[in-house]
Amino acid sequence: MTIRRRFIPYWLLAPGALWLLLFFVIPMGFMAEQALESGSLFTGGFTFSWEWSNFPDSLSGNSEQIVRSFYYAGAATLLALLISYPLAYAIAQQSGRWRLLLLFAVIAPFFTTYLIRTIAWKTILYDSGPVVGVFQTLHLIPQDGRLLATSTAVIAGLTYNFLPFMILPIYASIERLDLRLIEAAKDLYASSTQAFLRVTLPMTAPGIVAGVLLTFIPAFGDYVNATILGGTHQAMIGNKIQSLFLVERNYPEAAALSFLMMALILVMVVVYIRVAGTEAFMGEEEEAKT
Amino acid sequence: MRNSSEQSHVRGWPGPLVAVAILVAALTLAACGDNGGSGGGSEAPVAKGGKPTGEVTISNWPGYIDPGANGTVAEFEKAYGLDVKYIEDINDNLQFFGKLQPLLASGNSGGRSLFVVTDWLAKQMFDLGYLERLNHADLKTVFNNISPQLRNDPADPGRQFSIPWQGGLTGIWVITSSEGNQIHSMRDLFDPKYKGKVDLLTEMRDTVPLVMQMQGADPKNFTKADWEKAIDFLKKETDNGQIRRYTGNEYTEDLTSGNIVAALGWSGDASLIGRKDVEWRSPTEGCDTFFDQMVIPVGAPNTAAAYAFMNFAYRPEVQADIADFVNYVTPVAGVKPILEKKDPAVANNPLVFPPPSLLAPCSADPNPPGSAEDQQAITEKFQDLITG
Amino acid sequence: MAASAWAWLRRNALRIYAALAVLYLLVPIAVIAVFSFAETPRDRLDFSLSGGFTLEYWQHAFSNQELTDALFTSLRLALLATIASTAIGTLMALALVRYDFFGRRGANLLIILPMATPEIVMGASLLSLFIFYSAPLGFTTLLIAHIMFSISFVVVVVRSRLIGFDRSLEEAARDLGATPVQTFRYVTFPLLAPAILAAALLAFALSIDDFVISNFNSGTTVTFPLYVFGVALRGIPVQVNVLATMLFVVTTIAIVLVIWQQRRAEHMAAVQPNDVGEPFAGTPAFPPAPGAAGG
Predict the structure, then answer these.
(1) Structural domain boundaries in chain A
(2) CA-CA-CA-CA torsion sign (B278, B281, B287, B289)
(3) Which subunits sit against A, judged by 3+ Cβ pairs under 8 A?
(4) In Å, how far is B182's CA from the nearest CA of chain C?
């Protein structure tokens, strides 16, 4: 009886672990191998040669796009956070039907495809359109200025597209807030602001952490927004990798750059989780008993 | 509490180590595979002919064939009793090639029997051994009807691997009702008063030669220095915001919406631009011609059907339908008289049947000079430019 | 009085803000829907509505064969991928939350990694794998890829629900003589159902949406996003907007039905997960908010 019990988790885990192993880990191995190759397509193909120089080379050659991606993803994440937190709070305050409606409105954009959503923004932001007209009247952009093919459009696109990823985790953690704690704070003479800063915010931190990560990471690697809404100076690291893979066919540099990107992301995630102090993020303390 | 967290920590640590071990194993496994190109050119297999049956998959650029229930593909299916999967998934030569390259390198055609790429790419693919050679005996209709000047091709002497599909000219589209109407030359395009309202093409072999001609280089003999000088010039213009975007087909969208006043573009795209006040102009410094080619990839299934399609497309009546819709330059002789009866507007369109005066100052889109490495270096320099 | 107006504003500030934010979220969808009625000369989207309005594209919504094929391919793909990844992911979540075993940390890492990997990297590396094994690219390879990237999300969603799960109900069932299988079937699974459903919906949305990974691994199969990207460069047929709006409406109705069903089920069941009257309780769609709930 005890022996069988011990193997249950492995049986449960097996299909998923196998799948991920075969179709995620091993392909990464292939990419690792490509990152260490040298040569070129037209001069006899690629050969595996422990070409570690691919890594620093790809870093230096693409530093502009890396920095830009940080900036765009960071700006988009910040904007998304600022927009989402009050919205999540408002949703949590509602009850029943309104709450459902609002939650639905948040998830709804998901159900038109990502591309179509982004292309819709192209229609909304085109040069002779109403939005640009309003911005020009308000002198937010020069009279013959534009919104498309600028950094603004790309950041706006990123923010919009990943908003649900930010809202839902924050909402989840606000929803679980024990309101009695806030009442207790108020009973102890805390003002609304103090109650918010000292009780609500820290207690919803896990949701914020999750939201930030779920927004920043895909935004960092995105290239669709830059392609559709951007112009000549908005290329992100994802655009570069795509170009290296599909156009220049410089697979070693593309693979090296990809790994660098993943490494950067992992480092940021680890640092961020440490700083935000949510060891419980992995949910490991819970349910450790059988 | 303390105990259990210590315990789980100790128990858990092999996990990441295992993952790393697997990664290393995968690495060594993958090191056994290679990615090199196979023998090219004359060793390529000859595509087999025969009676066409069954299914066939064809890839082409969008808007390059007359569509619908009465379109060429439907007629082809009926004529031969075939099931055709016609996919318009080619938007950029290099991007399409990049997607297919890993497959073609291992002799796998990805299911396609025929696709259409521009002449220079066809040559590159053939040199890399990715295309099959064509048996002229199976292409009687083609060689009976092909325009005399296309019978031979400097990029494909004797037409070993490519059959022209449609051709065109690269020049400048302007919106006549805007200030772009004053643009007649490449030099005009770079006038600061059009800053941010001009698109160029991502096709290096369209954009750069036009700039080189603007800078006075000799189109019959572009040197490496010419290419580099032109790309440097473009970098300057891009950095100072003169160019709004580098595009593939999507310059038509920017023209439609009025986001730009002029763009480098292809002569046959009138039907894709959603406004009437546009005009295609040949730059005064010289223009650029190209011909897209039908090719058969290695490992293509049902090559008999591919041959049949090529022959079918070269029937003058069929070609007339295609030319009527597509509005590019047709490679088939004897189409003009048919169109003069059916659709005189198209028959008299100089962009569809270009007179020698229009073609004279044009040159075929060239490859950068030098060895494969040199070409790759120029390609990378240009790519750096357009991916900002 | 101005004072009371100001007070009203302050009280409802949050609500007004929420309304504005929601409006912002729905603007593109409205644009998509509105432009699906736009009359254009070349049957492709123009940027203005000056051509007038028409129902013709709705009447001939499925007349564009390629588009329709692409949409149905995507739907089929999403359905199969959802079923597979939800099943696999739920099992994994159960294992990770309820059992402590050797390699648990590693398994957790394995789940998190795909979410931290940019899609372009996953797509390109999968392509290398398929080429190496000379696998023909097409629907099957797409399916494999879609299942792969959905598993992680399913695990995270189901896991977050499992963490706050009240085990006493299962204990009660066992005390009453139910076997583990019966317990799972009659107690665990129904209570877990909302989270599994949320995970399935997420997996479905991810699959329908996916462009980058599909671009690398599709071969000659055309999915809906791939089709849209292709035509976006040359002018989008209006039917694309029509179908997108249809898709949106259908999924809306589906979600509404699901939620309505869930509320009925909760009213009938004797047990409620957390607080009373919280229909979305137990379905936080994303990583857990542990520590904040239930003390």
Answers:
(1) 62-280
(2) positive
(3) B, C
(4) 25
Q: Would you tell me how many other CB atoms lie within 10 Å of the CB of residue C244? A: 27
Query: What is the four-CA torsion angle of B331, B336, B341, B342, rounded to 10 degrees?
Result: 30
pLDDT at B26: 53
Rounded distance between C-alpha atoms, residue B84 and residue A245, angstroms: 30
Q: A32–B31: do the CB atoms touch at under 8 Å?
A: no
Q: How far is CA B51 from CA B115, B235, B311, in A?
A: 20, 53, 13
Domain ranges of chain B: 41-167+290-364, 168-289+366-386
Contacts of C7 (CB under 8 A, 6+ apart): none
pLDDT digits (tens, 9 = 90+) for C193-227: 878 888 888 888 889 888 888 888 887 788 988 88
Domains of chain C in start order, with CATH, are 69-268 (1.10.3720.10)
Q: Are strands A37-40 and B55-59 parallel, antiparallel or unpaired?
A: unpaired
CATH of domain A62-280: 1.10.3720.10
CA atoms within 13 A on the CB side of B184: 2
Would you tell me which CATH number, out of the four given (3.90.650.10, 2.40.30.20, 3.40.50.1110, 3.40.190.10), belongs to the domain B168-289+366-386?
Answer: 3.40.190.10
Are B16 and C106 inside 8 Å of each other by CB? yes
B168-289+366-386 shares the fold of B41-167+290-364? yes
Q: Which pLDDT band holds residue A284 (cuts at 50, 70, 90)? A: very low
User: From the candidates A3, A7, A20, A168, which should be mutated to test the interface with C, based on the most C CB atoms within 10 A?
Assistant: A20
Spatial neighbors of B384 by CB under 8 A, at least 6 apart, are none
Is the pLDDT at C188 greater than 50, yes or no?
yes
* CB-CB neighbors (< 8 A) of B124 in chain A: 42
- Dist. CA A269–CA A278, nearest whole Å: 12
Flag whether the ipTM exceeds 0.90.
no
Q: What chain A residue is nearest to B375 in terms of C-alpha separation? A: A42
**Maximum distance among all alpha carbons in chain C?**
77
First to last CA, chain A: 14
The reply to whether A233 touches chain B by the CB within 8 Å rule is: yes
Which residue in the set A102, A228, A261 is minimally distant from C18, CB to CB? A102
Higher pLDDT, C124 or B160: B160
- Chain C residues with CB under 8 Å of B253 CB are 232-235
pLDDT attached to residue B14: 47
Across the interface, whether the CB atoms of B19 and C134 are under 8 A apart is answered no
pTM, entire model: 0.81
Confidence of residue A4 (pLDDT cuts 50, 70, 90): low
Q: CA-to-CA distance for A41 and C173, rounded, in angstroms?
A: 65
Q: Tens digit of pLDDT for each residue in C230-277? A: 787 777 888 888 888 888 888 888 777 877 776 776 676 645 455 443
Helix (H) or strand (E) holding A136: helix A130-137
Nearest by CB to residue C230, choosing from B89, B110, B257, is: B89
Q: Which CATH architecture has domain B41-167+290-364?
A: 3-Layer(aba) Sandwich (3.40)
Q: Which value, to the nearest 10 degrees, does the dihedral of the CA atoms of residues B359, B361, B367, B369 take?
A: 150
Confidence of residue B25 (pLDDT cuts 50, 70, 90): low
CA distance A86 to chain C (A): 7
- Cβ-defined contact of A32 to B94 (cutoff 8 Å): no
Task: Give mean pLDDT, residues B104-118.
Answer: 87
User: Tens of pLDDT along A141-162?
Assistant: 787 778 888 888 999 999 999 9
- State pLDDT tens for residues A80-100: 999 999 888 888 887 777 777
B30, A284: Cβ pair inside 8 Å? no
Q: Is A279 on the interface with B (CB under 8 A)?
A: no
| Nearest in space to C223 (alpha carbons), one of C37, C81, C86, C94 | C81
